[in-house]
Records
---
Amino acid sequence: MQNTAFAAMNLEAGKSACHLLDTVWCERGFPVDPVWIAEELGMTVLEADLPSNVLGGLLKDADKDAVILLNQIETPDHKRISCAQKIGHYVDLSQHDEDCYRYVDFRAQQAGFQAGADAVFANYFGASLLMPEHAVQDMLRQGVTPVAMAEHFGVGEDVMLSRLESLGVPVHAEAA
């Protein structure tokens, strides 16, 4: 039952990311710039001196624009996926008409420990925003390697391999 709920949530997250790509990013190519998208949605994106166990956060006060905080010590790849995931949280919370919230993304959650429904949605949304399924499938049909895909989408190899696995693509160490 839980797998069915996660599958439905992932489907919804993927659709939401595709909608945003179609309506905001408008076929600007790859890699997708999540900071630009966040700013187009009216959010402010800031790099901050956060504790080392915090990847980032999303803050929204009533009647104010949302703010995405990214940990300044993270690599550019991690900042990109973290920003995309925070946009996912924003989209999810906006669908529920929530106007005030605080969300902090701790490292343990990023690694998949104790991920709640909101984190599952945001993680899949972030992956779908940066590495849309249709684009990944097109590259697979062309025989593009995971390493080349990672470079094309502007993500780390670990993120690309995780995306391929989430799409049901068998990934072997020698494929990387």
Note: DSSP finds eight helices and four strands in the chain.
---
Amino acid sequence: MKILRVLCLWAVCLLFAANGWASDVIKIGAIFSASGPASFLGTPEKNTAQMLVEQINSQGGVIGKKIELIIYDDETDVNKCVLAANKLLKKDRVVAVIGPTTSGNTLAIVNRFERARVPLVSCAAAEKIVKPVKKWIFKTPQSDRHAVTKILNHAKGKGYKKIAILTVSNGFGQAGRAVLKKLIPAMGFSLVADEVYGPKDTDMTSQLIKIKSKAPDAIICWGTNPGPAVVARNRVQLGITTPLYMSHGVASKKFIELAGSASEGIMLPAGRLIVANQISDSNPQKPVLKAYKQNYESKFHSPVSTFGGHAWDALQLVIKAIKMGKSARPADIRNNLEKITGFVGTGGIFNFSATDHNGLNEDAFEMVMIHNGDWKIIK
């Protein structure tokens, strides 16, 4: 009987050791598109997460434990993303996961995290990720609904009435298109053209010619690079002078590099990270943005990215939830994530709740314009 009790105790200890929350380290997983078409998004996310874990561990870790960050590169491939999620949940036994980078890849794995009862804090923007609310799923980028509202409010202020849209046919584009088609008429505009392009398309001339024939007051392009840069260049080549708005999916210097001089004058909603030096000193985000920018650029010798900021926010929110509950149990992390309010991140000030797993609103954005190859807040 005594031997049986010892064996049972030993088995329980092994079970606890197999879980990140019960060991001497806290295992947190990450899935980023560090290679493939979305690498310009995923690479700064990966860099940021690794940098942040180094900083946290150098300061003693969290609740007396070091963070072990387990990162997988999904190569911007949905099947590899699913495989990575399965490894993190079944093999690595992580207590939480940050990422993936893209909306389509995130949507492909949310049900796995719901079933596994492990929190996932996505770095992708599509509103469908958290609406309707899923118990174990959160995200840090501002939602497409708030981005669309920001754009349309600006367009209304300019007196525009007829809107054309050009969206990419992936998860991010489809989610944005659905919101655009709903809010454009709801906010008093006429949708005069609705064109779509593929994520691998290298010429959007035909779509832009159709849009031009409808004589819109403004065009809204919804996608992530390289497609939007192609749209910008084709627009100039066709001599189209209609004002062009982009989504927050191109809020990085990579877009300006790809589009070149064709990016001049393009407008979009963006988080304050890319215009940190232009916001008021009284803005509570400013010290956070300046510190992250300085740390990142000094370590990696490359410009800071809005998308890296999504990973900073995701990991910091998980860490905050662990500190709040003094626990790295997945259920405790989830419960405390939902209680976080007033958290100043790179993407805005987060106020999570049981009915809001993004915690941001339209105020998280600034409307910016590309001017002389850089970002400028539109006053």
Note: The CA atoms of residues 164 and 192 lie 5 Å apart.
